[in-house]
Amino acid sequence: MKRRDVVRELLSDRKDLLVVAGLGSTAWDITAAGDSPLSFPMWGAMGQAAMIGLGLALAQPKRRVLVITGDGEMLMGLGSLATIGVQQPTNLTVVVIDNERYGETGMQQTHTAHGVDLAGVARSCGVKVVEFKDLAGAIHKQPGPHFAAVKVDAEKIPLVLPPREGALLKARFRRALLGEQADAE
Amino acid sequence: MWPEEIHRELSGAGVRVVGYVPDAGHKRLIELCQADKKMRAVVLTTEEEGIGLAAGAWLGGQKSVLLMQSSGVGNVVNALGMVRECRFPLVTLVTMRGEQGEFNPWQVPMGQAVRPVLEAMGTVVHAPAAEAEIVPTVNAALRLAYNSYASVAVLIPQRVIGIKSFQDQASR
After folding, report:
1. Residues of the domain holding B114
2. Of A17, A73, A83, A90, which to mutate for an interface test with B (greatest number of B Cβ within 10 Å)?
């Protein structure tokens, strides 16, 4: 599968879904699918995407939260799957777009190219593993936490960049989610 | 006692998410947060996870606090770059090791590097010198962080925690 097709499908008819994207290709993928103030594309802090999703899911239990990240980013934060497994947030789904490569640094192979099974790790941590075809229901309806690793082609494709400034990305997200409360004390 | 009073400050400030990697010095405060129905205590596999947790909670409109031992400061350095770039408010309560009377030499290098490391990453460091200063300092840290969108760490001195040996630590 092509990564941009996968992400575009995940974000089609996203309703009021809250989206976090790990640094690199997945941040460009969600932007290519259509930038939104309710998306938080990361430009750094590798390994933190799933934890930002967890914090958001705990703070907003009535909203659905989707983390889209890469295999390299997920591997740097494997412990967060254990932490999510303990917390069991029912409104959180983590999707790894797995091209088995570090895409921003020269397409070097990641551990998943050598058989490391991210879905197996998630399952062992108590996170429900779902197939790609069942993701829409998992993301929007069924009680989670959910995890999917979607294998995609290792391809070099044009960058589609979201805004870069971290403070702007934070502020626009909070304004869109919280309204006037975002600026209250 | 200061753990009870810190818990009261956190509660009064509306802290709802408490990320922690356990430390003997934080034992009582962790128990109080776990027992508080308005707080979600989140055990972490590494302190770095607590930075993402706090950032996500703030994106969702909730205040949090992060509890760790001084050794954990070394585990959060790169993630603090996001805190600074995004101006996420962050309150970190650090129980210190590698200070006065340390009995484990492996604790000393990181313990001694805590302040310069945090300051290099743009975190404001408050270091109360005595037990009586701890609670007012936590109160001030919460206000600085959440009124001014700052990253603030409070270093709780080893002298106050008073663990003198491995045997003492294990018996707590």
Report:
1. 2-170
2. A83
Domain A3-183 belongs to what architecture? 3-Layer(aba) Sandwich (3.40)
From the centroid of its chain, how far is CA A145? 13
Q: Which of B43, B59, B82 comes nearest A48 by C-beta?
A: B82
pTM for the model: 0.97
Residues of A in contact with B45 (CB under 8 A): 79-80, 82-83
Query: How many contacts does A have with B, using Cβ atoms within 8 A?
Result: 128
Distance CA A74, CA A148 (A): 12
Question: CA–CA separation, B95 vs B143, rounded Å?
Answer: 20
Do A138 and A144 meet the contact criterion of CB atoms below 8 Å apart?
yes
> pLDDT of B100-149, one tens digit each?
889 999 999 999 999 999 999 999 999 999 999 999 999 999 999 999 99
Is B20 exposed, middle or buried (CB count within 10 Å of its CB: 0-12, 13-18, 19+)? buried
Q: Which residues of A touch B50 (CB under 8 A)?
A: 51
- Per DSSP, the three-state class of A2 is coil
Sorted by where each begins, the domain ranges of chain A are: 3-183
The answer to whether the CB of A27 falls within 8 A of the CB of A159 is no
Q: What is the ipTM of this complex?
A: 0.98
Q: What is the pLDDT of residues B33-53, one digit of tens each?
A: 999 999 999 999 999 999 999
Q: Which two tokens stand for residue B120?
A: 């290099």
